[in-house]
Design goal:
The chain has a single domain, classed as Rossmann fold (3-Layer(aba) Sandwich). It contains 13 helices and 8 strands. β2, α5 and β3 form a beta-alpha-beta unit. It is globular, with a radius of gyration of 18 Å. The protein starts with a helix and ends with a helix. The structure holds NADP nicotinamide-adenine-dinucleotide phosphate (NAP).
């Protein structure tokens, strides 16, 4: 059954129906399933994989035959989650690696180790996310949401370029996916204050700004990696019931509880972006529920070439060894 575009657009523009489990249920009726085993022989890295949408993405990728490396901060929680995945998929290839993606030194260490171990990888999911209650700086002096959502993933992608390139073939590009958020629609880039030192800090505002930056960065990396056979996408998972939402937004979690998606439903488009044919034919697109979405709804909302260039320069300068 084909879902009329107008129905999909109305769900999307009304936000609550589109982002909730209602939108997922209405849209999935028209989806085709991806071929079983379509990820066999492919190695995919998932950050923030110890719980929430990251763990659900691992389960979905393993179910399609992928070998998955779970990147976590807490090894014991990572191994607990890996054990649960292996209980459902005996014999699957699931590894646990420890890396704090907000620490640029730790990202360099992890990436160097992975390059030494792996000849090729086929995908990276930048899923690790945080919404701190107050302004927090990393040991390297960067604001935490900027380091976790933007600088760390930028550096990890660039450090893994050789093995992503090795994993690509003319018919099957390697894929990088940023798990952004619909919250990015409420924010713009702040080229003059990327570290959120000015004004009144709020975790929600910092989160939205860096989720906006993820969408723009995925477009810039799409251009940067086009010659390496790597496609880069960003996506919004909808609203899903995860430990992160429960702890960072207790009020929202309470009010929207019954409407929230399951973790599997939230991770569905992540798994689809790594496995379906369609997203391999484009790059630099923002997706929600397996469909491309505009990155701005207001006519003059777009980023200027200067603010885009400033984001790129920020990432290059901040991650220079
Ligand atoms: N759930 C939703 O409704 C929703 C909506 C829009 C977007 N998203 C996005 O989806 C992604 C996953 O969110 P979630 O809801 O699953 O949240 P979650 O339950 O808090 O999961 C986030 C995961 O990221 C890990 N993480 C955080 N900082 C890290 C770091 N510096 N290094 C390595 N791992 C780190 C956390 O590890 P620890 O366990 O060690 O803390 C946790 O496992 C996030 O990027 C979020 O912005 C979620």
């Amino acid at each position: 059954m084909h879902l009329p575009r107008v129905v999909d657009a109305v769900l999307d523009r009304l936000v609550v129906p589109g982002y909730s489990r209602v939108g997922y249920a209405v849209r999935r009726a028209s989806w085709r399933s991806v071929p079983a085993g379509c990820l066999e022989g492919r190695t995919i890295i998932v950050t923030g994989a110890g719980g929430g949408l990251g763990a659900a993405a691992v389960r979905g990728l393993v179910a399609l035959g992928a070998r998955v490396e779970m990147v976590v901060r807490d090894r014991s929680r990572g191994e607990e989650t890996a054990a649960a995945v292996l209980a459902d998929h005996p014999g699957a290839a699931v590894d646990v690696a420890v890396c704090d993606v907000s620490s640029l030194d730790d990202v360099r260490r992890y990436a160097a180790g992975l390059r030494d171990r792996e000849l090729a990888i086929h995908g990276v999911v930048h899923n690790a996310g945080v919404m701190p209650p107050e302004r927090t700086e990393t040991g390297e002096g960067h604001e935490l949401t900027l380091a976790t959502h933007v600088l760390g993933p930028f550096l990890l992608t660039r450090e893994l370029r050789p093995v992503l390139r090795a994993g690509a073939s003319p018919t099957a590009p390697s894929r990088v996916v940023f798990v952004s958020s619909g919250g990015m629609y409420t924010a713009s880039l702040h080229p003059d204050d990327p570290e959120f030192r000015e004004g009144t800090y709020s975790g929600g505002a910092a989160y939205a700004r860096t989720k906006r930056a993820q969408v723009v960065l995925s477009e810039l990396l799409a251009d940067d990696l086009a010659g390496d056979g790597v496609v880069v996408h960003s996506m919004h998972p909808g609203w899903a019931d995860t430990p992160g939402v429960a702890s960072s937004m207790p009020g929202f979690h309470r009010v929207t509880g019954p409407l929230l998606r399951t973790e599997e439903q939230g991770a569905d488009t992540v798994v689809w972006l790594l496995s379906a044919a369609e997203p391999g034919h484009s790059t630099g697109v923002f997706w929600h529920d397996r469909a491309p979405r505009p990155t701005h709804y207001l006519p003059r909302g777009g980023e200027t070439p200067q603010s885009r260039a400033a984001l790129w320069t920020l990432c290059v300068d901040a991650t220079a060894a």
